[in-house]
Design brief:
There is one protein chain. The protein is α+β, with helices and mostly antiparallel strands. It contains 15 helices and 18 strands. The strands form four sheets. Strands 1, 2, 3, 6, 7, 8, 15, 16 and 17 form a nine-stranded mixed beta sheet that branches. A hairpin with a 5-residue loop joins strand 4 and strand 5. Helix 1 packs antiparallel against helix 15. The longest helix has 20 residues. It binds zinc ion.
Length: 461
Protein backbone atom coordinates (compact mmCIF):
# COMPACT_ATOMS: atom_id res chain seq x y z
CA UNK A 1 0.00 0.00 0.00
CA UNK A 2 2.75 2.45 0.95
CA UNK A 3 4.49 1.88 -2.37
CA UNK A 4 1.30 2.67 -4.23
CA UNK A 5 0.96 5.90 -2.22
CA UNK A 6 4.56 6.89 -2.90
CA UNK A 7 4.15 6.18 -6.61
CA UNK A 8 1.04 8.35 -6.71
CA UNK A 9 2.95 11.15 -4.96
CA UNK A 10 5.80 10.85 -7.47
CA UNK A 11 3.38 10.91 -10.39
CA UNK A 12 1.53 13.98 -9.14
CA UNK A 13 4.45 16.34 -8.53
CA UNK A 14 3.15 18.97 -10.95
CA UNK A 15 -0.46 18.65 -9.82
CA UNK A 16 0.57 18.97 -6.20
CA UNK A 17 2.64 22.08 -6.95
CA UNK A 18 -0.22 23.63 -8.85
CA UNK A 19 -2.58 23.09 -5.88
CA UNK A 20 0.00 24.58 -3.54
CA UNK A 21 0.17 27.65 -5.79
CA UNK A 22 -3.60 28.09 -5.43
CA UNK A 23 -3.15 27.91 -1.65
CA UNK A 24 -0.36 30.52 -1.82
CA UNK A 25 -2.43 32.93 -3.89
CA UNK A 26 -4.77 33.59 -0.98
CA UNK A 27 -3.30 36.53 1.03
CA UNK A 28 -4.08 35.10 4.46
CA UNK A 29 -2.21 37.71 6.51
CA UNK A 30 -3.51 37.24 10.03
CA UNK A 31 -2.15 40.39 11.67
CA UNK A 32 -4.10 42.72 9.41
CA UNK A 33 -7.85 43.10 10.02
CA UNK A 34 -8.55 43.88 6.35
CA UNK A 35 -7.45 40.34 5.46
CA UNK A 36 -10.14 38.66 7.60
CA UNK A 37 -12.17 37.66 4.49
CA UNK A 38 -9.01 36.16 2.95
CA UNK A 39 -8.44 34.06 6.06
CA UNK A 40 -12.01 32.86 5.87
CA UNK A 41 -11.57 32.05 2.17
CA UNK A 42 -8.28 30.28 2.84
CA UNK A 43 -9.87 28.13 5.56
CA UNK A 44 -12.75 27.22 3.25
CA UNK A 45 -10.33 26.39 0.41
CA UNK A 46 -8.34 24.08 2.66
CA UNK A 47 -11.43 22.40 4.10
CA UNK A 48 -12.70 21.74 0.57
CA UNK A 49 -9.38 20.07 -0.35
CA UNK A 50 -9.59 17.89 2.75
CA UNK A 51 -13.18 16.98 1.93
CA UNK A 52 -12.04 16.02 -1.57
CA UNK A 53 -9.70 13.63 0.22
CA UNK A 54 -12.75 12.18 2.00
CA UNK A 55 -11.89 13.58 5.40
CA UNK A 56 -14.59 15.02 7.58
CA UNK A 57 -13.41 18.63 7.45
CA UNK A 58 -14.96 21.63 9.17
CA UNK A 59 -14.20 25.31 9.43
CA UNK A 60 -14.77 26.24 13.05
CA UNK A 61 -14.98 29.72 14.58
CA UNK A 62 -12.65 30.47 17.50
CA UNK A 63 -13.43 34.03 18.48
CA UNK A 64 -10.62 35.08 16.19
CA UNK A 65 -10.05 33.71 12.72
CA UNK A 66 -11.46 30.24 12.00
CA UNK A 67 -9.57 26.96 12.34
CA UNK A 68 -9.82 24.01 10.00
CA UNK A 69 -10.40 20.68 11.71
CA UNK A 70 -10.45 17.44 9.75
CA UNK A 71 -10.66 13.78 10.73
CA UNK A 72 -10.56 10.49 8.87
CA UNK A 73 -12.87 7.63 9.69
CA UNK A 74 -12.09 6.50 13.22
CA UNK A 75 -10.94 2.89 13.60
CA UNK A 76 -10.70 1.59 17.17
CA UNK A 77 -7.34 0.25 18.22
CA UNK A 78 -5.25 2.44 15.99
CA UNK A 79 -3.02 5.15 17.40
CA UNK A 80 -4.29 8.70 16.94
CA UNK A 81 -2.05 11.37 15.43
CA UNK A 82 -2.78 15.08 15.70
CA UNK A 83 -1.32 17.05 12.82
CA UNK A 84 -0.99 20.78 13.46
CA UNK A 85 -0.18 23.48 10.91
CA UNK A 86 -1.12 27.06 10.14
CA UNK A 87 -2.60 28.56 7.02
CA UNK A 88 -1.97 32.19 7.88
CA UNK A 89 1.13 34.08 6.79
CA UNK A 90 3.26 37.01 7.88
CA UNK A 91 2.70 40.42 6.29
CA UNK A 92 4.66 40.61 3.00
CA UNK A 93 6.07 44.13 3.44
CA UNK A 94 8.36 45.66 2.22
CA UNK A 95 6.71 44.87 -1.11
CA UNK A 96 9.36 46.57 -3.23
CA UNK A 97 11.93 43.99 -2.11
CA UNK A 98 10.04 41.11 -3.73
CA UNK A 99 11.34 39.97 -7.12
CA UNK A 100 7.85 38.68 -7.96
CA UNK A 101 4.70 39.66 -6.03
CA UNK A 102 4.24 37.80 -2.71
CA UNK A 103 0.80 36.42 -3.57
CA UNK A 104 1.55 35.54 -7.17
CA UNK A 105 3.56 32.32 -6.64
CA UNK A 106 6.49 32.06 -9.01
CA UNK A 107 8.60 28.98 -9.76
CA UNK A 108 12.21 29.78 -10.57
CA UNK A 109 15.76 28.74 -9.71
CA UNK A 110 17.20 30.00 -6.44
CA UNK A 111 20.69 31.50 -6.08
CA UNK A 112 22.18 28.00 -6.06
CA UNK A 113 20.30 26.80 -9.12
CA UNK A 114 17.62 24.75 -7.36
CA UNK A 115 13.96 25.03 -8.35
CA UNK A 116 11.79 26.70 -5.76
CA UNK A 117 8.37 28.29 -5.48
CA UNK A 118 8.53 31.92 -4.32
CA UNK A 119 5.60 33.40 -2.37
CA UNK A 120 4.69 34.61 1.10
CA UNK A 121 3.90 31.49 3.11
CA UNK A 122 5.72 29.19 0.67
CA UNK A 123 7.61 27.44 3.48
CA UNK A 124 5.96 29.01 6.56
CA UNK A 125 3.74 27.15 6.66
CA UNK A 126 1.53 26.57 3.62
CA UNK A 127 4.05 24.51 1.63
CA UNK A 128 4.72 22.24 4.58
CA UNK A 129 1.03 21.89 5.41
CA UNK A 130 0.45 21.09 1.76
CA UNK A 131 3.01 18.25 1.87
CA UNK A 132 0.85 16.59 4.53
CA UNK A 133 -2.45 17.30 2.76
CA UNK A 134 -1.06 15.76 -0.42
CA UNK A 135 0.30 12.71 1.44
CA UNK A 136 -3.01 12.23 3.26
CA UNK A 137 -4.95 12.62 -0.01
CA UNK A 138 -2.92 9.88 -1.64
CA UNK A 139 -3.36 7.59 1.36
CA UNK A 140 -7.10 8.19 1.26
CA UNK A 141 -7.21 7.28 -2.41
CA UNK A 142 -5.26 4.10 -1.72
CA UNK A 143 -7.70 2.93 0.94
CA UNK A 144 -7.19 5.25 3.89
CA UNK A 145 -4.60 6.84 6.17
CA UNK A 146 -3.31 4.01 8.41
CA UNK A 147 -3.73 5.95 11.68
CA UNK A 148 -6.61 7.83 13.24
CA UNK A 149 -5.79 11.30 12.04
CA UNK A 150 -6.91 14.68 13.30
CA UNK A 151 -5.69 17.68 11.31
CA UNK A 152 -5.85 21.05 13.05
CA UNK A 153 -4.80 23.87 10.77
CA UNK A 154 -5.15 27.27 12.29
CA UNK A 155 -4.48 30.93 11.86
CA UNK A 156 -1.57 31.22 14.32
CA UNK A 157 -2.13 34.99 14.25
CA UNK A 158 -0.15 37.07 16.69
CA UNK A 159 1.84 34.53 18.65
CA UNK A 160 0.28 33.95 22.03
CA UNK A 161 -3.22 34.82 20.87
CA UNK A 162 -5.38 33.07 23.40
CA UNK A 163 -8.06 32.07 20.88
CA UNK A 164 -6.26 28.85 19.99
CA UNK A 165 -5.53 28.12 23.62
CA UNK A 166 -9.23 28.42 24.42
CA UNK A 167 -10.09 26.30 21.39
CA UNK A 168 -7.72 23.52 22.45
CA UNK A 169 -8.95 23.61 26.05
CA UNK A 170 -12.60 23.53 25.00
CA UNK A 171 -12.07 20.74 22.46
CA UNK A 172 -9.78 18.47 24.43
CA UNK A 173 -11.82 15.36 23.61
CA UNK A 174 -11.92 16.14 19.91
CA UNK A 175 -8.15 16.71 19.80
CA UNK A 176 -7.10 13.86 22.09
CA UNK A 177 -4.24 11.97 20.46
CA UNK A 178 -1.21 9.81 21.20
CA UNK A 179 1.22 12.09 19.47
CA UNK A 180 1.29 15.40 17.60
CA UNK A 181 3.14 16.13 14.37
CA UNK A 182 4.14 19.56 13.12
CA UNK A 183 6.05 20.51 9.98
CA UNK A 184 6.96 24.14 10.54
CA UNK A 185 10.71 23.84 11.04
CA UNK A 186 13.68 23.19 8.79
CA UNK A 187 16.24 20.75 7.54
CA UNK A 188 19.74 21.26 8.87
CA UNK A 189 20.95 21.86 5.31
CA UNK A 190 20.22 20.63 1.81
CA UNK A 191 20.60 16.85 1.88
CA UNK A 192 20.61 16.90 5.69
CA UNK A 193 16.99 16.54 6.81
CA UNK A 194 16.31 17.11 10.47
CA UNK A 195 14.04 16.38 13.38
CA UNK A 196 13.84 19.29 15.79
CA UNK A 197 13.77 18.39 19.48
CA UNK A 198 13.88 21.87 21.00
CA UNK A 199 12.34 25.27 20.36
CA UNK A 200 12.81 28.57 22.07
CA UNK A 201 9.95 30.38 23.77
CA UNK A 202 8.98 33.98 23.28
CA UNK A 203 8.07 37.14 25.11
CA UNK A 204 6.99 40.00 22.86
CA UNK A 205 6.61 43.44 24.42
CA UNK A 206 6.06 46.97 23.30
CA UNK A 207 7.46 49.96 25.17
CA UNK A 208 5.83 53.40 24.89
CA UNK A 209 7.61 56.53 26.06
CA UNK A 210 5.63 59.77 26.27
CA UNK A 211 7.03 63.21 27.02
CA UNK A 212 5.77 66.66 26.03
CA UNK A 213 2.08 66.89 25.03
CA UNK A 214 2.98 67.60 21.39
CA UNK A 215 6.04 67.69 19.14
CA UNK A 216 8.24 70.69 19.96
CA UNK A 217 10.58 72.93 17.96
CA UNK A 218 14.00 71.42 18.63
CA UNK A 219 15.65 74.86 18.50
CA UNK A 220 13.32 76.53 20.94
CA UNK A 221 13.02 73.61 23.37
CA UNK A 222 15.96 71.28 22.62
CA UNK A 223 18.21 70.77 25.63
CA UNK A 224 15.59 71.99 28.10
CA UNK A 225 12.98 69.24 27.95
CA UNK A 226 13.12 65.43 28.11
CA UNK A 227 13.20 63.90 24.64
CA UNK A 228 11.27 60.58 24.45
CA UNK A 229 13.38 59.36 21.51
CA UNK A 230 16.62 60.01 23.42
CA UNK A 231 15.21 58.31 26.52
CA UNK A 232 14.02 55.30 24.56
CA UNK A 233 17.47 54.87 22.99
CA UNK A 234 19.17 55.17 26.38
CA UNK A 235 16.84 52.57 27.86
CA UNK A 236 17.25 50.14 24.98
CA UNK A 237 21.02 50.56 25.15
CA UNK A 238 20.95 49.15 28.69
CA UNK A 239 19.47 45.83 27.54
CA UNK A 240 22.83 44.15 26.88
CA UNK A 241 26.19 44.20 28.58
CA UNK A 242 29.50 44.27 26.74
CA UNK A 243 29.65 40.47 26.61
CA UNK A 244 26.37 40.30 24.72
CA UNK A 245 24.46 39.05 27.75
CA UNK A 246 20.97 40.32 28.47
CA UNK A 247 21.30 42.93 31.19
CA UNK A 248 18.07 42.37 33.11
CA UNK A 249 18.41 41.21 36.75
CA UNK A 250 17.13 37.64 37.14
CA UNK A 251 16.86 37.02 33.39
CA UNK A 252 19.19 33.99 33.48
CA UNK A 253 18.10 32.60 36.86
CA UNK A 254 16.05 29.67 35.52
CA UNK A 255 18.00 28.94 32.33
CA UNK A 256 18.63 25.22 31.98
CA UNK A 257 22.23 25.02 30.74
CA UNK A 258 23.07 23.14 27.56
CA UNK A 259 24.35 19.67 28.40
CA UNK A 260 27.95 18.78 27.52
CA UNK A 261 26.52 16.05 25.22
CA UNK A 262 24.42 18.55 23.29
CA UNK A 263 27.31 20.97 22.94
CA UNK A 264 29.54 18.14 21.71
CA UNK A 265 26.86 16.93 19.24
CA UNK A 266 26.29 20.41 17.86
CA UNK A 267 30.01 21.03 17.51
CA UNK A 268 30.13 18.00 15.21
CA UNK A 269 27.39 19.32 12.88
CA UNK A 270 28.71 20.49 9.52
CA UNK A 271 27.84 24.13 10.15
CA UNK A 272 29.55 26.36 7.59
CA UNK A 273 30.02 29.75 9.18
CA UNK A 274 31.44 31.29 6.01
CA UNK A 275 28.43 30.22 3.94
CA UNK A 276 26.16 31.45 6.72
CA UNK A 277 27.85 34.87 6.70
CA UNK A 278 27.68 35.02 2.95
CA UNK A 279 23.99 34.15 2.83
CA UNK A 280 23.33 37.01 5.27
CA UNK A 281 25.62 39.47 3.51
CA UNK A 282 27.60 39.94 6.72
CA UNK A 283 31.31 40.04 7.43
CA UNK A 284 31.23 38.89 11.07
CA UNK A 285 28.77 37.50 13.61
CA UNK A 286 28.04 38.72 17.11
CA UNK A 287 26.37 37.38 20.25
CA UNK A 288 26.82 36.15 23.77
CA UNK A 289 30.43 35.57 24.72
CA UNK A 290 31.46 31.96 25.33
CA UNK A 291 28.99 30.32 22.95
CA UNK A 292 29.13 29.11 19.37
CA UNK A 293 26.75 30.38 16.71
CA UNK A 294 24.50 27.32 16.90
CA UNK A 295 24.46 27.52 20.69
CA UNK A 296 23.53 31.20 20.55
CA UNK A 297 20.77 30.60 18.02
CA UNK A 298 19.31 27.38 19.46
CA UNK A 299 20.10 27.17 23.11
CA UNK A 300 20.60 30.62 24.63
CA UNK A 301 18.02 33.30 25.43
CA UNK A 302 18.00 36.64 23.65
CA UNK A 303 16.55 40.12 23.74
CA UNK A 304 16.11 41.97 20.44
CA UNK A 305 14.55 45.19 19.28
CA UNK A 306 12.10 44.30 16.50
CA UNK A 307 10.85 47.76 15.66
CA UNK A 308 11.46 51.40 16.58
CA UNK A 309 9.22 54.38 15.96
CA UNK A 310 9.55 58.03 16.84
CA UNK A 311 9.62 61.51 15.43
CA UNK A 312 9.77 62.67 11.87
CA UNK A 313 10.39 59.94 9.30
CA UNK A 314 9.43 61.73 6.09
CA UNK A 315 11.64 63.17 3.37
CA UNK A 316 14.30 65.72 4.33
CA UNK A 317 14.62 67.41 7.72
CA UNK A 318 12.08 68.46 10.29
CA UNK A 319 13.53 69.84 13.49
CA UNK A 320 11.43 68.49 16.32
CA UNK A 321 11.58 66.99 19.77
CA UNK A 322 9.06 64.16 19.29
CA UNK A 323 6.38 63.88 21.92
CA UNK A 324 6.50 60.08 21.95
CA UNK A 325 8.65 57.10 21.03
CA UNK A 326 8.04 53.38 21.05
CA UNK A 327 9.82 50.10 20.47
CA UNK A 328 8.81 46.51 19.95
CA UNK A 329 11.11 44.12 21.78
CA UNK A 330 11.12 40.35 21.71
CA UNK A 331 12.94 37.91 23.93
CA UNK A 332 13.57 34.33 22.88
CA UNK A 333 13.49 32.05 25.90
CA UNK A 334 15.04 28.67 26.59
CA UNK A 335 14.00 25.88 28.95
CA UNK A 336 13.08 26.50 31.84
CA UNK A 337 12.52 30.27 31.72
CA UNK A 338 8.98 31.30 32.64
CA UNK A 339 7.60 33.83 30.10
CA UNK A 340 5.40 35.44 32.76
CA UNK A 341 8.37 35.95 35.06
CA UNK A 342 10.56 37.29 32.24
CA UNK A 343 8.01 39.82 31.01
CA UNK A 344 7.64 41.08 34.57
CA UNK A 345 11.41 41.44 34.93
CA UNK A 346 11.58 43.34 31.63
CA UNK A 347 8.83 45.80 32.49
CA UNK A 348 9.92 46.36 36.07
CA UNK A 349 13.56 46.94 35.12
CA UNK A 350 12.84 49.39 32.31
CA UNK A 351 10.35 51.29 34.48
CA UNK A 352 13.05 51.59 37.20
CA UNK A 353 15.63 52.78 34.68
CA UNK A 354 13.30 55.32 33.06
CA UNK A 355 13.74 58.99 34.12
CA UNK A 356 10.85 60.06 36.31
CA UNK A 357 9.93 63.14 34.23
CA UNK A 358 8.72 60.98 31.36
CA UNK A 359 6.00 58.36 31.10
CA UNK A 360 6.72 54.71 30.29
CA UNK A 361 4.03 52.16 29.46
CA UNK A 362 4.00 48.60 28.14
CA UNK A 363 1.91 46.28 26.04
CA UNK A 364 2.30 42.50 25.78
CA UNK A 365 1.87 40.82 22.43
CA UNK A 366 2.61 37.23 23.24
CA UNK A 367 4.13 34.81 25.69
CA UNK A 368 5.24 31.26 24.91
CA UNK A 369 7.34 28.71 26.75
CA UNK A 370 10.34 26.94 25.25
CA UNK A 371 10.01 23.24 24.46
CA UNK A 372 12.25 20.18 24.68
CA UNK A 373 11.05 16.87 23.20
CA UNK A 374 12.72 13.64 24.38
CA UNK A 375 15.54 12.70 21.99
CA UNK A 376 15.02 8.99 22.57
CA UNK A 377 11.89 6.88 22.29
CA UNK A 378 9.73 4.95 19.86
CA UNK A 379 8.12 7.96 18.15
CA UNK A 380 11.48 9.57 17.46
CA UNK A 381 12.79 6.29 16.02
CA UNK A 382 9.76 5.88 13.73
CA UNK A 383 10.06 9.48 12.61
CA UNK A 384 13.73 8.96 11.80
CA UNK A 385 12.80 5.97 9.63
CA UNK A 386 10.20 8.09 7.81
CA UNK A 387 12.71 10.87 7.13
CA UNK A 388 15.24 8.32 5.89
CA UNK A 389 12.66 6.91 3.48
CA UNK A 390 11.39 10.31 2.35
CA UNK A 391 14.71 12.09 1.86
CA UNK A 392 17.04 9.15 1.35
CA UNK A 393 19.20 10.39 4.24
CA UNK A 394 19.00 9.98 8.02
CA UNK A 395 17.77 12.95 10.07
CA UNK A 396 20.03 15.16 12.13
CA UNK A 397 18.68 15.97 15.58
CA UNK A 398 18.65 19.73 16.06
CA UNK A 399 17.12 22.49 18.12
CA UNK A 400 15.76 25.66 16.56
CA UNK A 401 15.74 29.23 17.70
CA UNK A 402 12.17 29.98 16.70
CA UNK A 403 9.01 29.44 18.69
CA UNK A 404 5.92 27.36 17.99
CA UNK A 405 3.78 28.22 21.01
CA UNK A 406 1.27 25.49 20.23
CA UNK A 407 3.84 22.78 21.09
CA UNK A 408 3.85 23.86 24.73
CA UNK A 409 0.07 24.16 24.62
CA UNK A 410 -0.29 20.62 23.24
CA UNK A 411 1.99 19.33 25.98
CA UNK A 412 0.19 21.09 28.85
CA UNK A 413 -3.41 20.69 27.70
CA UNK A 414 -3.37 17.40 25.79
CA UNK A 415 -0.42 15.87 27.63
CA UNK A 416 1.36 14.66 24.49
CA UNK A 417 4.72 15.26 22.82
CA UNK A 418 5.13 16.71 19.35
CA UNK A 419 7.32 15.43 16.55
CA UNK A 420 8.80 18.42 14.73
CA UNK A 421 9.69 17.27 11.25
CA UNK A 422 10.37 20.25 9.02
CA UNK A 423 11.28 20.51 5.37
CA UNK A 424 12.50 24.13 5.11
CA UNK A 425 16.01 25.27 4.24
CA UNK A 426 18.05 27.92 6.03
CA UNK A 427 17.95 30.28 3.05
CA UNK A 428 14.16 30.14 2.58
CA UNK A 429 13.81 33.71 3.90
CA UNK A 430 11.05 32.93 6.35
CA UNK A 431 9.21 36.17 7.33
CA UNK A 432 11.31 38.09 4.78
CA UNK A 433 10.82 39.25 1.19
CA UNK A 434 11.29 36.51 -1.43
CA UNK A 435 10.27 33.66 0.84
CA UNK A 436 10.58 30.36 -1.01
CA UNK A 437 10.05 26.62 -0.67
CA UNK A 438 12.43 24.26 -2.43
CA UNK A 439 10.61 21.93 -4.82
CA UNK A 440 12.75 18.92 -3.88
CA UNK A 441 11.94 19.62 -0.23
CA UNK A 442 8.24 19.75 -1.11
CA UNK A 443 8.48 16.39 -2.83
CA UNK A 444 10.70 14.68 -0.23
CA UNK A 445 8.58 16.22 2.50
CA UNK A 446 5.40 14.84 0.98
CA UNK A 447 6.99 11.39 0.76
CA UNK A 448 8.23 11.68 4.36
CA UNK A 449 4.73 12.58 5.54
CA UNK A 450 3.28 9.59 3.69
CA UNK A 451 5.80 7.18 5.24
CA UNK A 452 5.40 8.80 8.65
CA UNK A 453 1.68 8.01 8.87
CA UNK A 454 2.46 4.40 8.00
CA UNK A 455 5.29 4.22 10.58
CA UNK A 456 3.21 5.83 13.31
CA UNK A 457 0.52 3.19 12.82
CA UNK A 458 3.02 0.84 14.46
CA UNK A 459 3.06 2.93 17.61
CA UNK A 460 1.66 1.13 20.63
CA UNK A 461 -1.13 3.11 22.20
ZN1 LIG B 1 5.12 28.99 10.95
Amino acid sequence: MLNQVLQAIDARRQGSLSDLKDFLRIPSVSTKPEHAPDLQRCAQWLAAKLRDAKLDAKVLPTGGHPVVLAKNEHRPGRPTVLFYGHYDVQPPEPLEKWVTPPFDPNVRKDENGYDAVYARGAVDDKGQVWAHVEAVTQWQQAGGVPVNLTMLIEREEEIGSDNLERFVRENKELLQADLAVISDTGQFARGKPAITYGLRGLVYCEVFITGPGHDLHSGMYGGAVPNPANVLCELLATLHDKDGRVNLPGFYDDVKPLTPEERADWAKLPFDEQAYLKSLNLTALSGEKGYTTLERAWGRPTCDINGLTSGYQGHGAKTIIPSAASAKVSMRLVPSQDPQKIVTIFERTLAERCPKNIKIEFARHGLASAVLVPREGKAMQLAAEAVQAGFGAPPTLIREGGSIPVVALIKTVLGIDTLLIGFGLADDRVHSPNEKFDLDALHSGTRTAAVLYEKLSQMTR
